[in-house]
Structures are given as C-alpha cells and as structure tokens.
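Hi all, long-time lurker, first post. I run a small reading group and we've been trying to get comfortable going from sequence to structure in the token notation. Rather than ask abstract questions, I figured I'd post a concrete chain and ask someone more experienced to write out its structure so we can walk through it together at our next meeting. Sequence below, copied exactly:
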Amino acid sequence: MDVIHIRRLEIFANHGVIPEENTLGQKFIISADLFMDLKKAGKTDDVSKTVHYGQAAVLIKQISEKSVFKLIEKLAEEIADALLKKFPVEKVKVTIEKPWAPVRLPLETVAVEIERQWHKAYLSIGSNMGDKEQYLKNAIEKLNSTDDCEVVKTSSFIETEPYGNVEQDKFLNGALEIRTLMSPDELLKRVNTIEAEEGRVRTIHWGPRTLDIDILLYDDEIVYTDNLIIPHPDMQNRSFVLKPLCEIAPYAMHPVLKKAAITMLTECN
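-- Answer (accepted) --
Happy to help. Here is the structure in token form:
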C-alpha cells in the first residue's frame, strides 16, 4: 500500500508522569506514516484524492498541545485515532520520541511506535422474540453510532427455523459488514453490551432471545480464546448465517477452511 510520510515534527508539550514535566514542558518529536491508495491522486493531480499533509501535521500538533497525558503511549493512541477518523486512510503508524526524557542516563531518545488500522468484520444478527425486525434495526443503529465502528453493508432479513432442540418461535436473521477500529475483544464487548441493552438474557443454550449478535469473520484473523473464537466455529453448518452473508459478501473467505461463503452455503445441509 502507498504511504505518506510525516517525519520528525517537533512539538513542545507537557506530557509525562513527573509533575515538573506537566508544568515546564519539553520537546517531543512525532512521525506518522499514513497508508492509503495514492493512484487516483497521482493520475488526476487532485489534492482531494489524497491527504493534505499540512492538515495532518496541524492535527497532530493540536492533539499534542491541547491535553496533558502521563504516557506518550496515550498520546500516540490519540493521534492515531484522530488521523484514522479524519482522513481516508486505512492504516497509520505513529512514532513519538522524547529526547529530553528525565532518566538520568546518557541516551539519545526514548520512543514508542504503534500501528493502528481499520478492520473489516462480518456479523450475524438474529431475533425470535417480540418485535424481531425492530431489535435487528436497533442493533444496526447502535453499531453504526459506536465511535469506532461503521456499518458498511446490511443484508435483507430472512425468516428461519430455530437452531437446536429448543421449542421456540422462528427467527429473523441478517448479516452485516462493518468497518471498525476495535480489536476482536473490544468488538465482542460492544456487541454483548448491545445485546444486554436490548434485553438479551442468557439462560437456555440455543434458546429464544431478543437479540443475538455473532462475530463471524474479522479480517483474515484466527482467534481462539476462552471468550471468543473467530471464525465462528459453526458458521459453515448454519444456512441461516450463510444465506444473508452470501447476499452481501459471497466470496468472504473462511481463513481456516479456505472456502468462500458461497461454497460453504452450497455444501451446507
């Protein structure tokens, strides 16, 4: 991917864990790499097709000077977050050097470097209690209003038979493509919060629910923890998941099975 480099911007600010650093201030040197496709800008000579590096540098300066943080890690996060949300970039790398760090040892500088980026995730949503369609619409609205999340595509809603051996009403199911800055764990916490806000109670496995949100895919990552498994471990066996997913992303790839969603749907019994 193409890159715009902002190198060694010098800023005087007041970040540090020592009180004197917060009052007297010191020099910080900040660099940023902005990753995006620059081909359109190169072909058209149109500044609107790229990032105005002067505006990016001003934004970095404003964030660095307006607040006081104990850690330059926090400052790096704030800068990366602002750059990703302000400009049409896919990924940023931010480096913050602190050449006057009060460590009482002969060193040139201390620094932190972070990389942050937008991620693509696919979610399954379902409901089989009350006003099912409204619960699904509420989920979409709450995800889209989340600061680090944007709903990119929404499937139509389909009525499906319940999964498992529990007597219950039919489900209304759909699928979403989202763009997010959240990690998988952060995304899981957010969808669990939305479920709880919509009255989800976890009492019966595969039982009725006001709202169910599952993370199906997250980039091409494989996650296996006590709380979260990605790709969803049973998505290849669930036509009610695969049908709406194929409507918005038929060639979304399962990173373990190495199969597209449309292939999994064809093979699903």
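A couple of things your group might point at:
The first strand starts at residue 3 and ends at 13.
The chain has eight helices and 13 strands.
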